[in-house]
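Do me a favour: review this protein, sequence plus structure tokens, and tell me how the chain folds. Record follows.
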Amino acid sequence: MYPNLLQAFARHRENVLQYCREKGIVNEQNLHDLPLVKELIGKEIERLNKDLARFEQVKKFTIIPEDFSVENDMLTPTLKLKRKNIIARYKEAIDAMYEGELLLVE
């Protein structure tokens, strides 16, 4: 369905919060919208991509506003990703990455 390597990241809330606090940002709302957070994750992706072959590298990403959990039906009880549910919920954002746009997910 989506042939290129794309990665949707559910932010690790505590790490992002700590980073934002260190930078003087205390508002926890809409962290996924902050340029500072996008830059942090972008730099981490760049760092990780250095050890990967070109075809394995993450080319585009979007930051989603929720963690995957059993409660929101994004994970199974054994904590495996429910890919169909994730794609269904974030189809618009995934499609936007393929079309060259980056859509902010609310």
Observations:
- Helices lie at 13-22, 35-49, 83-89, 91-98.
- Residues 7-98 form one domain.
- The radius of gyration is 14 Å.
- The chain has one domain: 7-98.
